[in-house]
Amino acid sequence: MHRLLALLLCLCCLAAPRPAHAGEPWRLATYNLRLNLASDGVNAWPQRRAEVLALIRYHGWDVFGTQEGLPDQIADLEQLVGFERIGVGRDDGALRGEHAAIFVRRERFEVLRSGTFWLSETPEKPSKGWDARCCHRIVTWVALRDRRAPQAGPFYVFNTHFDHEGVVARRESAKLLLARRARIAGDAPTLVIGDFNSSPGSEPVQILLGELLDARTTSRTPPYGPEGTFNGFHIDAPLPVEERIDHIFHTRGIEVLSWGALTDSFQGRYPSDHLPVQVLLRLP
Tell me: the pLDDT tens digits for 124-179? Predict the structure, then answer.
């Protein structure tokens, strides 16, 4: 009788459903690099390039998206060993202009497919949208597979930089991003990251939250670092919630273990005018 009970218990354990989240956690980040402008003086890219690379290496990001990077800055980041870069220049769909690049650690993830679309009424070609006056704005996306958990299937990362002036452009960009995400990724787990030039209570963010979750809110551990993410190169910036314009959003089912706005500085200077935002997460 005891042997029969033991056998039944073993069978029940074998038939029990697997945990909702499997596999090793990994790190995702978004980082506005601040474009390379000589007029930034001591904060120009050549004066902080090494610090940006050191920050990325130290924190061990597995996937990260950048904003504002010009071709020379993207080339510098390609010095990071073991990463594959995805993305094109926003001005010509090739190399020219700022990139919303995604860097993927090859040892951990396999790139399945990728693409770019413009935040405008004509998203298939380089174009300005709605009331955006100065700049083309883009979304770079990539489908990935975790090499350590291939049975989990693909997931998607979308990286973007919303317009800084156009109110209509930011609102319509949020709508277009959601529509394209649904078309490209379907029901697959998805992360949407970037500089949205929009604070948590703004209309664009509220539109996104209609379908996505804010990783800062869903983090299993208390958020680390200040609420704001735009520092303007001021080491003593107060960084209130109104300056939280860099976000990581995700679909349901993704487990966010931690969220942080990183305040790393070097000799009293930030390596960019934005703080990088990092999450530790686990896919369903």
Answer: 999 999 999 999 999 999 999 999 998 889 999 999 999 999 999 999 999 999 99
pTM higher than 0.90: yes
Burial call 104-129: b when 16+ CB within 10 Å, e when fewer: bbeebbeeeebebbbbbeebeebbbb
**CA distances to 65, 102, 109, 184, 248 from 149, in Å:** 22, 21, 10, 22, 23
CB 122, CB 128: distance < 8 Å: no
Q: How crowded is the C-beta side of 267, counted as CA atoms within 13 Å?
A: 6
CA angle 88, 90, 91 (to 5 degrees): 120
Bridge-based pairing of strands 213-214 and 246-250 is: antiparallel
Give the helix/strand (H/E) hosting 107: none
| Cα(48)–Cα(75) distance, integer angstroms | 15
Per DSSP, the residues of 18-43 read PPSS-S--EEEEEEE-----GGGGGG
The residues near 232 (Cβ < 8 Å, ≥ 6 apart) are 273
Reported as a single tens digit per residue, the pLDDT across 246-258 is: 999 999 999 999 9
